[in-house]
Structure formats: C-alpha cells, structure tokens
Please model this.
Amino acid sequence: MKDKIDFRLLGALLRKQRQEQFSRIGKGKFDFVGFGMRVVLILAFLVCFVVFFGRFLEIYLQVKTDYVLNPSERLFEILTAAYTLVLVLMTVGAVSQINHALFAADDMRILAALPVGAKTLYLSKLIVIYVGQIGFALLTVLPVNIAVAVHAPQGAWFYGMTALTCLVLPLVSIAIASVLALPYHAVRTALKNRFALHFIVVTLLTAALLFVYAAVLEAVKELLLGDDLKYFFNEAVMDKIAAAAAALYPANWMARFLLGQDAARNAIFIAVLLAGSAPVSLIAIRLLLMRALQSRISGASNFIGRRKTLRRPHSPFVALLKKEFLTIFRTPNYTFSYFSVAVVMPLMVYFCMSVGSSLAVKLIGIQCNAELAVFLTLLFGSLANMFCTTNISRDGKMFFSVKAMPVDARTVFLSKVILCMIVTAVSQLISAVLLLATGYLNVWAALFLFASGVLCGFAQVCVATKIDFRHPDFSAEADGEIRESGNTVSTVVVLGLLASFLIGGAVLLVRMMLSLRGLADQYAYLTYLITGVIALGAAAAGYFLLAHRLDKKYRAFDGGGAL
Amino acid sequence: MEDTQKPNEPEVVLDIRGLCKKYSKKADYAVRDVSFACHAGEIVGILGHNGAGKSTILKCLEGMLPFEEGTIAVCGFDVTKNPVAAKSNMGFVTDDHAVFVKMTGLQYVEFMADVYKVPANVRKERLDALEKVFSLGESIYNLISSYSHGMRQKICMMGSLIHRPRLWILDEPMTGLDPRTMRAVQEYMAEYAAAGNCILFSSHALATVAKICDRVVLIRKGEQISDVNVREIRKNDPHFDFEEYFLQHERQD
Model:
C-alpha cells in the first residue's frame, strides 16, 4: 500500500507534541522564576548584541575600497557573514533534532507500532523542528536586521523580506540537515558505547572550536588596538572579505535578495536551491527512516563490561559517587556538557586573558592581570558548572529508588556535590597552571586563584543542586536522559554571571582607583582580600542553603507528583 | 514502638497502623487508615483494582513518599524516625523497574551490595544463588539500557535480594517475566519466606496470589476492606475459589 500523508493524523500528532511541550505550565510544576531568568538572559544577550554589532556596523560602513565609500556592498558582506553563521548554527541544531526525533524520542517506540504512515510521522516531527527553527531565526536574524536598519535605513522591501527570510532560512537549514543527518548518525553509531573515545573526540572538537573563537578574539583585539581602522581593513583584507562573501552560498543570495540587489535573480536561485534539495532530502529521509525502523527492531547496540568478577566492596558514599560518574560518562550528551566543557574551559580563560591583559594596558594603562584572572576564572568557571543544575533531575525515577535505600540525605547529596567539585577542581587547576605557565600569574596568585575558584564553584554547585531539588525536571523518556536544558540553568547562569561581574568588577574597580592614586602596589593585597572573603562567604552561604534541614526536606520530597 | 507481640507468635516484621496519605492538601486521601501486620515466614499479597492505592502504600513503606498520618515499623524500626535502620531490613522491586541503566547488570548488583553493606565474603555465593533463579547468564555483563523489560525486572529482583532483606517488597513482580522465570520466582518466594523472612507484594494476577499467599489484604479506594487468611480458609475448604471471593468483594462497591 502506498504511504500517503494523512492530514487528520498529522493534526493529531502535532496536537500531541504541543500538549507535551506545554504540559508543565499550570500544574504547579513550572519554574516561573527560572523561566523569567531565561527570558532576561536572552533579552540581555540580544540587547548587548544589537549595541555592539551596531557599533561595529557604524565603523565597517565607513571602510573605503579604492578610496571609495560603498555602504551597500559593505552591507552585503556583513549580512552574508551573519546569515552564514545563522545558517550553520541552524543546520547543526536541525541535524541533532532530526536524529533525536527519529532515533531517540521515546514516542517513536509507540508511534511505530500504531497505524501511522512513516511520511505522516516524519512530517509531524519536521514541522515541529521547522517551527523551532523559525523561532531561532527570529532571535538571530531580527537583531542583525534591526542593527542594520538603525545604522543604514532601508525601505519597506527590507522589512517585508526580513519576515520572509525567517521563514525561508529554516527550509534551507532543514534541507541541508536532512542530508547531513545520515553521516552524523553513522558517526554517532560508531562512537556509541565507546565512551572514552567519544569523550576524547568531543573534547578535541570543542577545543578546536575554541581555537577558532580565539582567532576571532585576536582579530577583535587587533581591531580595537589598531590606530586606524583603515589599517586593519586594508585593501588585501577587503579583497579577501569580498571573495569570501561571493563564495558563501546560499547566504549571499539571501543577502542580495534582502537588500533588493538583483532581487528577482537571487529569488530564483533560492527557489531552485530549495526545489533541487527537496529530492535529495527525500532520499536521505527515506534512508534515515529505514535505519530508524531497523534500529527499533534490532534494539540498542550492546556494551559489554570488561570485568566479569566481583570487585572489592565500596562504602555507600563511594558507590553513589561512582554511580554519578557512570551516569555522566556513559551518556554522550552529559559527557560533552560537563566533562568536555570543564576540560576545555581553561583554554577560554587563557584566550580571554591574553586579549584582555593587553587591552587593559593599552586602553586604560593599567596592569591588572590578577584582577582579570579572578574575573575570567569566576565567569568561565560558572559557565562550566552549569551542568550541576541537573544533579537531581538526571537521576529520573531512580532518585526515588535511592530515597528508599538505607542512605541518609547528606550522603546522597554529598556524593553529587563531591563529583561536581572534583570536576570543578580539575578545571580550575588547569586554568591556574595555564596562567602560571604563560607568565600571567606568579605561583601564589595562581594558588589563590585555584582556591577561590574552587570555593565559588562549591557555592554554585550547592545553589544549583538546591534549586534543582526544589524544581526537579525528571525526564519522561525511558532512559531518563535530559535532552533540553531546564529553566534552572538560566537561574544559575544569571547568578553565576552576576557573581563574577560583581566580584571581578569590584576588584578591577579597586585596582583602577588605586592605580590612579599610585597606590596599586602598596594595596595589591586588597584584590586577594576582597576575593577571598567573598569566596569564603559564598561557599559558606551555599553550604548552609543546601544543608539546612536537608534531612527533613529529603523525607518530605515527593517530586511534585512525578512518582 | 509499643511491643504487642505475644509469646510463640512469629516475629512481626512489618507493622502498619492507621496509614493515611494525600498527594496534596486539597486532594482526597489516596490511602486512608490502613493497618495490618506481616510476620516472619509469611507471604502477604495486597490486592485491589487499578488506582486503589496499593502502590502508594508500598511507596510510603519504602520511604519514597512521605505520609501524613500513621506509623510504619520494619523489624521494630520506625520508617520516619529511624529510616536507615528500617530500610536496611527491606528490599524492594518497584512497578516501573527503575534501575540505573548506565550500569551493567553486575555493576548494579554490586552497587546495591555496597549501599546495603553486604560483606565481601558472602557476595559471590549470593550472586551465584540469585543467578540460578533468575538466569540472566552472560547478559549480566551488558549495559542495562540494552535489557528487555523482563531482564530489567530480573536485575531489579537480584539487586533487591543481594542483602537478604527480612522484608521483601514487590510491586507487580510477575509483569514481563517469562513462564519459566515466573515459576522460579514463585518457588523462590516460598523458599525465601520459609527461611523466616516476610514477603509483601501487590499484584493483579489473582491465580498467583491465591497460589502463593498466606494472607491477602484487599484495598478499595484507598481503604482496607479486608485482611484474609487464605491459608486458613484453604485448610478448612480445599475448594475455596479465591477469584470468586475477590470479585464478590469488588461487586459490593
């Protein structure tokens, strides 16, 4: 029988997915504070982006080539670059979402057994992915276009076509992602259950991405330190930018279309691209569906433990600690979010230190390595520790099973906090050693930085665990894996950012004021005093917050009806 | 806790008195005034229709859920006042077969042995004995995430028995098991209770309950409607039809 799309079923499947998305709201389980923090975080990021991007645009539009100003060509270049970046991000997201929808989503297990055609099923998943991608396009394209409109006023065409761009970009990204999803799945299958190899590969890839980021940072530094922008955007650089913009398909077509430059011709190019990619995507999707169905029939690929004899006994605490480690290490998403990020985060500290240190000397004439190191260590340390916001949720229903075991609340929570602290300590140690080895800090400053980083990390882990305990977000999927960051993450990120800006800002301010009065060397200890006192206070407060009446709260915990 | 045990009466392993549980302040009682005791050597079944409150009673007893009123004592230890000691004497198998899926079967059993502080010198012997009953074979070295429903059930049971608890609690234990394992589990339950332990389990399988239980506690809408000594009745009336007895109680609703 031919597999046709059943639109009534399609509607039912979409309603089911919508209900699942909004099922938590209005049932007393929704973390409104966390959601508010998430909105604030996104808005703050967008405002910062519009302001800084606008400033850059103002400068870039004044760049001359062959002694001639050409703002429309500069706009084309900048929009091409921006849309390329947006398209890459959207494609990466879509590849991951398509794979999850087909191979990991729990509802596929049920739906595969129901009389739902493969095309209808896949289309329902694609529509949900498409809607999500439109949301992402709105969040990324709109700020870029708003900044453009502010600094280079455009006509009605630009505004009207901006909306169209947000609808078309996801089609392009999904078309590309459909083709890439198959090789991506092959790589994932090859790495599945090879946990150590997966960790190494993912860590190296993350580090490579950071090196690219460092190159961008270096360029920004050059840009800011350069005496004359014309010197930075010289003829050679501008030739390279023009050549790159001409080669960055299909973003350059979108940019020309949006700017009304050869609009009809570029619209045809985009339409041909979409029409041409459709059959390729359909073939790829067919192959993916076959793989997905086969994997459901044959079951998960197996992992066989090497040890076949009983090991020596551990204490309940060590057993719980080992359980925490195995849960993270044997879940690829968790390994990336926590272990890989924690290992490569010191690189970020180092890159930002190398840029920030010379910028501070050049722009404000003050040497403030210790203060900058404090700020960067706390900032990136707090970002690396975001994963501890799932300390309770990632146990899923097993949290209740552990509750039924003869272990007190302190041991259960301590095992979670200690694992996070081991990761934090390793990350902070690498940061301190890196800054010591590259000469930014002396031995004592590096030791101090390590200690204060660990103390602040402890405070963050305690607070995050406490918030997650109050608003656990247990996964409904069979493996209990959490695939989307909850609102707790936003709360902890906001708190981490605030703390790092407050402490880092305070010591930088003190250093600047003392430098202006020529007292910087005499009162250098103030940086250590302020940071040390705040870090100690934060650690004590975090511990108190988590440990206060913990036993009673643990006994009374019912997960808000999750059981 | 007040000692109510009479001389020559088997040891009270579980004592539930006036248990009441609400899921929220505004909600009705999910369990209201349930009281019964289980003795050493007994197999006690909890029966009731879907949503009657059987699993809630077991979860309160295991310490997974808090409860508003009443007391629960295991081997004389109050589960709220002395939870670690009470839980040390329990082993449980939940209805959703929750296990740490990122561990291998062997790692899970070792984890349970560590948590319940099972001495090193008895672990191998106990594991081998459990392996004979549940026959997981080489699969015990595989990741639990690759296990079938029935295999997860088996590893849950193995983990719950490694410390040889005085009270073994099972929520729907026969679901997903193959007939051979089901038979082996029933025989093991009888053997385990005969060794002086107590088994409390909930089930919908009336035939299983009738066959292996000494006593049955019937629950309806959260309330205990009877506590039947099936063994006694069977002794007096060999043709006693437990299924008919249960359905009659249900029809009274």
